[in-house]
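hey m, so remember when u said the C-alpha cells were messed up on ur end? i reran from scratch. heres the input so u can diff it against urs
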Amino acid sequence: MMAAMMPKPRSILITGASSGIGKALAIEYAAAGTHLALGGRNQERLKSVAAECKGKGASVTVGLVDIRDRSKLSQWIFSVDDENPIDLVIANAGITAGTGMGRLREHPDIVRSVIETNLLGVINTIDPALERMCMRGGGRIAVMGSLGALRGMPYCPSYSASKAAVHTYAEGLRGGVARLGVGVTIIAPGFVSTPLNNAIVCPKPLLMSEDRAARIIRRGLDRGRAVIAFPRALYYGLLLARLLPLRWADAAFAAVHVDVPEKFDSMAD
C-alpha cells in the first residue's frame, strides 16, 4: 500500500547542512514560502549554502551549533520554532571512523566521539523539536541512519553501532508519537559521494551523487515513509547477508579492503 502524501513542510530544520547530504537537502527544499533553519559548525560553508538557498527564494536562519552541546542546541531549536514552528527536522549531522592503514582497531577516544555525535547528537537534535511537535499534534522527525546499521562492519564497528542505535531509537519513538500526529522516518543511505565518504578508500557499490540522494530522501519524506533505504539493491543484499551463517558473513566482510583516516573528526556539517 502506498503511503499517503504528507502536507508540504514550510519550516524545515537540517543539521549538518554545510556539506554533503545536508547541503543537498537544504538546496532541494529551498523555495519561496519555505523557511530553512540550517545548523552546522563551519560558518563560511553555512553562509554559502544559506546564500544559495535564499537565491531560490527561501528564508533562512543559520545556527553555528555543535549537536553534542545539548543546552545550546536546544536553545537554538526553540528560538527557531518560536519564530517559524518546525514541520520537519532532519537530524543529519554525523561523523565516521574506522580501521585500516595498519590499524587493527579504532582508538577508544574516537569510538566515544562517534557514539556521542551520531547517537547522542541525534537525540539532542530531535528532543526539543519533538516536544513542540507533540504539543501541536503534527510534524515529522527524520534521522540519518545508514545501510551500515544493518550489519556490524569489521572496518567501522563504532559507526555501525552508532547508526544501529539511531535506527532502534527512532523505531521506538515512532510507535509512541504516532498517536500524537508526529511521524518518524529512518533514512538509510548507502554510498553517497560526500566529503565524508570520499575520504574513505574502499569499494563503493552503486555510488550516487548528493543531489540524487536528496531527491530520493525528499520523495520518501513527502510520502510519509517510515524507512527510506537506498539503493534498494544494496539494501536487500545486506538483508539477505544477515541470513548467511555468521562465519561466512564474517569472512566475506573481513575480506573487503577498507582504509578510513584515523582522525576523521570533521562533522558532516
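this time it looks ok to me. The longest strand covers residues 182-189. if urs says something different then somethings off w ur setup not the seq
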